[in-house]
Amino acid sequence: MLAVRDQRDRAAFGRLFAFYAPRIKGMLMRSGMSGAEAEDVVQDVMLSVWRKAAQFDPARAQVSGWIYRIARNRQIDLVRRAPRTLPEEVEIETPPEEDPGQQLAFAEEAAKLRAALDQLSPDQREVIARAYLGDLTHGEIRAETGLPLGTIKSRIRLGLERLRHELKDLRP
C-alpha cells in the first residue's frame, strides 16, 4: 500500500487488488448482495483505494481495516440510495349496510317457513329437523331414533313435498 501511495506503483496495486477483491466480494455477498452487485462495488472500492491512496496513514490504521472501511461505507451508501418499498395500504371492507326492506323480507320468509313446518306431522318435522338443521345423515338419524331407513327417507320426502307446496308462493 505504501508503494501505491508513494510511487503510484501499478504492480503493487495489482497485488492489492488480487488479494482484497475476492475478500471484499465475499463480505458483500454474505451481507445479502448479489454476485454482480458485489463485483460492481468491489470495482468501485478498489478505484477509491487507488484514488485515495495518498490519504492512507499506516499510523492510524492497517491496510485491511482502511480498505474494508471504504467497502463498508460504499455498501451503506448503496443501501441508503436504494428505493424503499412502501407497505401496501390495507383496505378494510366495510360490510354492506343491510337494507331494511331486505331484513323485513327475510323475517317474513322465516315466519312463513315456521308456519309451514308447524303444518307437518310431528314425525316428519322431527326427521327433517335432524337431517337439515342437525346435519345428520340418514344412517345417523336411524341410529338415534331406531326407525327403519325406508321410513326416514319416506318422511323426509313427504315432508319436503309438503313444504314445497306450502312455500311455492314465497319465491318465483
Automatic annotation (TrEMBL):
**Cross-referenced InterPro entries, in alphabetical order?**
RNA_pol_sigma-70-like, RNA_pol_sigma-70_dom, RNA_pol_sigma70_r2, RNA_pol_sigma70_r4, RNA_pol_sigma_r2, RNA_pol_sigma_r3/r4-like, WH-like_DNA-bd_sf
Q: What Pfam family does this protein match (any one)?
A: Sigma70_r2
Keywords of this entry: DNA-binding, Sigma factor, Transcription, Transcription regulation
Cite a single GO MF annotation.
sigma factor activity
On the tree of life, the source organism's domain of life is Bacteria
Domain RNA polymerase sigma-70 region, by residue range, is 18-84, 116-165
- For whether the record's keyword set contains Amino-acid biosynthesis, the answer is no
Q: Which GO terms describe its biological process?
A: DNA-templated transcription initiation
Family per similarity comment: Belongs to the sigma-70 factor family. ECF subfamily.
NCBIfam families in UniProt: sigma70-ECF
Record-given protein name: Sigma-70 family RNA polymerase sigma factor
* Organism (species): Pseudooceanicola albus
- Native organism taxonomy: Bacteria, Pseudomonadati, Pseudomonadota, Alphaproteobacteria, Rhodobacterales
